[in-house]
Amino acid sequence: MRLNMLRKKPYIVESSDISRSLLKRHFSIFPNLDVTAFRAAEPMLFSNNHSPNLIITDVNLGSSGFGKISGIELINKLRIIYPNVPYVVFTTPTSSFKRKKLLKGGAAAYVSKFDDDFIDHLENEVRNQLNIKSPIN
Predict the structure, then answer these.
(1) CB atoms within 10 A of CB 51
(2) pLDDT in tens, 30-64
(3) 85 to each of 9, 27, 53, 91, 94, how far by Cα in Å?
(4) How many domains does the chain have?
(5) Nearby residues of 114 by Cβ (< 8 Å), 6 or more positions away
(6) In a domain, 135, yes or no
(7) Strands annotated E in 1-137
(8) The pTM of the whole model exceeds 0.85
(9) Residue 33 lies inside a defined structural domain of this protein
(10) To the nearest 10°, the Cα dihedral for 87, 132, 16, 51?
């Protein structure tokens, strides 16, 4: 019971069903994480019934069946609902200007999807933001 109270609740927002499933599956190996994955603009994401500790989102979300929204628009909308929640953003390689804009706009970290070690870098950022250890230690 106590373990459940200590679990962190990251949200993953990704329009690709495959990527969303893979990310959720990867982070589900952490015993102290209760991962929830959403499509971009999914109505449940905007309900205030949940309290995430971190939001992990792609910048290029595209259309998800619930409408089209960019990662930057998503962060701006979610900041109103979850003002104290950090954001880790990931996307295809982008200019240093856009990366700086994302970080200046409130993202706690930026990870490039096309980095050979993408999942390792994303995991490190998630662990840093949530102050958790690797499940493999």
Answers:
(1) 10
(2) 888 889 888 876 767 777 667 889 999 888 776 55
(3) 11, 18, 6, 20, 24
(4) 1
(5) 92, 93
(6) no
(7) 10-13, 36-38, 54-58, 87-91, 107-112
(8) no
(9) yes
(10) -60
